[in-house]
Amino acid sequence: MRFKPYWELTYKEKFFRTLWMTPFVILFHFIPEKLFAFFIPKSILVSIIWVIFIWQIVYTYKKWKRSY
């Protein structure tokens, strides 16, 4: 099985690849705030990442189930 770019995946594959990212999203919470070179607070950045992550899971799941 070869690695395929995200845009070549089916919605089922996109859904499972998104689920594989869950540990990384959780680990992102434990990165010290001093490592951020942004001007926005870490709490806002983490909130944005969680919203996008949850939206992506829901969206790919719905598209996957609709395609069958």
From TrEMBL:
Keywords: Membrane, Transmembrane, Transmembrane helix. The chain crosses the membrane at residues 15-32, 38-61. It comes from the Bacteria. This is Uncharacterized protein.
